[in-house]
């Protein structure tokens, strides 16, 4: 299998991009306990995003993570700039990475985008979290992607995961 198509290679290629340690079996096993454990773990979001790309729904985790970063912005000037980028990328109709949110939530964001608050994307983020938790997370746990990762760590340990 070529490195371009090997899912495991894609995950561990991140090693070359500055991630200093590898995902552990303990962390991978915790992901099956709850979606929150997956999304708040060290490597969970990166690996989950790699899986979501196979489902063509990685915009969900990208938006959720972008909202987490957005909430930490303290400068109003930067908040306005980032809010507009989030809106253009994920919220506006026909956005390049448009997320699936209902019309009232979209309209509320449109109303608030001129003077964005720290919480102006909270409802959209909550909806996307629920989408992922109910839809793609159960499929992730059942997927060959997750099962192979777990099995590789159980049978070989971490050291043999690196190419």
Task: Summarize the structure in words.
- By secondary structure, the chain is mainly α.
- The chain has one domain: Orthogonal Bundle (Regulator of G-protein Signalling 4, domain 2), CATH 1.10.167.
- The protein is built from nine helices and no strands.
- The protein starts with 6 loop residues before the first helix and ends in a 7-residue tail after the last helix.
- The N terminus and C terminus are likely disordered.
- It holds the Pfam family RGS.
- InterPro entries: RGS, RGS_sf, RGS_subdomain_2.
- This is RGS13 protein.
List keywords for this structure.
163 residues; mainly alpha; Regulator of G-protein Signalling 4, domain 2; 9 helices; 0% strand; disordered C terminus; RGS
Let me know the largest β-sheet: none
Q: Measure the end-to-end span.
A: 13 Å
Judged by helices, strands and strand pairing, the structural class is mainly alpha
Question: Helix count?
Answer: 9
The number of E-state strands comes to 0
Number of domains: 1
Q: Characterize the overall form.
A: elongated
Rg measurement, Å: 18 Å
Q: What is the correct CATH architecture?
A: Orthogonal Bundle
Name the helix and strand elements from N-terminus to C-terminus, one letter apiece. HHHHHHHHH
Q: For the residues shown, what is the average pLDDT?
A: 86
Low-confidence stretches: 1-5, 14-21, 159-163
Q: Provide the CATH superfamily.
A: Regulator of G-protein Signalling 4, domain 2
CATH topology: Regulator of G-protein Signalling 4, domain 2
- What share of residues are in beta strands? under 5%
């Amino acid at each position: 299998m070529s490195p371009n198509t090997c899912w495991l290679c894609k995950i561990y290629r991140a090693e070359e991009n500055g991630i200093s340690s590898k995902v552990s079996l303990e962390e991978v096993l915790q992901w099956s306990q709850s979606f929150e454990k997956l999304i708040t773990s060290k490597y969970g979001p990166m690996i989950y995003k790699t899986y979501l790309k196979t489902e063509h729904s990685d915009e969900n985790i990208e938006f959720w993570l972008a909202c987490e970063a957005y909430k930490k912005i303290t400068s109003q000037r930067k908040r306005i700039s980032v809010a507009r980028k989030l809106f253009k990328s994920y919220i506006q109709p026909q956005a390049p990475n448009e997320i699936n949110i209902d019309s009232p939530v979209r309209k509320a964001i449109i109303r608030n985008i001129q003077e964005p608050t720290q919480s102006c994307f909270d409802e959209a983020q909550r909806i996307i979290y629920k989408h992922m938790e109910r839809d793609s997370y159960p499929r992730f746990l059942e997927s060959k992607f997750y099962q192979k990762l777990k099995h590789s760590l159980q049978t070989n340990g971490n050291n043999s995961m690196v190419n």
